[in-house]
Amino acid sequence: MNLNWCYLYSPVAMLRLLQLLVGAAFIILTSKSGFHGPVYFALFMSAFFCLMTLILFFISLFYKHWWRVNEIHDLLAAALYIALMAIMIDQTLRQSYCNFEGNPLPCAYNVFLGATFCSGFCFGLYLLSALYRFYA
Hints:
Layout: H1 5-8, H2 11-32, H3 38-62, H4 67-94, H5 109-135
């Protein structure tokens, strides 16, 4: 079992590492916001796809012929992150009332706004990875 050095230095591997980094930021922000309603779903699905991305990264690092599975994974993850972005936009809008100075209650508006940005960025990264594999 040899390490696939060509894959490690490829743009696809760099996209995978960015997907893991931004996915981890999404998980941290979502878990910091407090759990209620659809945030459970967002946290579970982002953690699931982050772990699947990590597993596929290591499989692709050791085996060369997993490009079709990676492409399907990227398209599914892009579709999922659109749904997660919609959930986070909804949660951000629900918390927008508490984003004024002098509010004594804890406010998760900035956390949800950051999670919305991270989910949009993850969507872009997964879509870029799928399109790169499709056209390469």
